[in-house]
Amino acid sequence: MWGSGLWPVTLRSGDLALRPLRQADRSEWMALRGRNKEWLAPWEASNPQPEGGLPTFREMVRSLTHQAREGSALPFVITLDEPRARRAPIVGQLTVSSIVWGSALTATLGYWVDKGHAGRGIAPTSVALATDYCFDELGLHRMEINIRPENAASLRVVEKLGFRYEGLRPRFLHINGAWADHESFALTVEEVPPGGLLGRWLASRG
């Protein structure tokens, strides 16, 4: 159950960390998104309302921070320690959203990773780290991830981590200017092996 000490929190695995998104990240976050504009465009959420736009960075952080305090979201940035860097740079973002308590104990997870850091295991490590935290510390029962069928890289992430395919959701989310189909994957706490999702993933990498 939600309570003090569960948020804000920083989660770590080796050189990788998930830490809370904050207003002070604006310049770095905006620069990273700018460099990844074309890389992320096919999967980018859009506003279906005519003339509607997306929130500004300040509005996004304010909304996500409020949701975190209410216990309905966990807004993280992904950072990676790098040699000679004064502080770990942001290499992506991961958000656990739509947290439902009571008899459901479920949540939805979304993420993106910088193109220059793709293929290094950052996404599966981050997803495993966040999922273990939600199961072990928050007491959630189910984690869901929805992915465009064309997004081969993200489909490999859920395959590597053992998320179970639950079916196609036609026109599920408004993406890049149009309603887009998504494939739904989920994992319940009973499906996680002893040692956690992260332990199994790291062991599979040798």
Q: How does this model look, in words?
A:
The chain is α+β, with helices and mostly antiparallel strands. The protein has one domain (11-204): 3-Layer(aba) Sandwich (Aminopeptidase), CATH 3.40.630.30. It is 30% helix and 31% strand. The protein has 6 helices and 8 strands; from the N terminus they run E-E-H-H-H-E-E-E-H-E-H-E-E-H. Strands 1-2-3-4-5-6-8-7 form an 8-stranded mixed sheet, with helices on both faces. Helix 4 links the parallel strand 5 (106-113) and strand 6. Helix 4 packs antiparallel against helix 6. The longest helix has 15 residues, at 122-136. Keywords: Acyltransferase, Transferase. Belongs to the acetyltransferase family. RimJ subfamily. Residues 16-190 form the N-acetyltransferase domain.
Summarize the structure in short.
By secondary structure, the chain is α+β, with helices and mostly antiparallel strands.
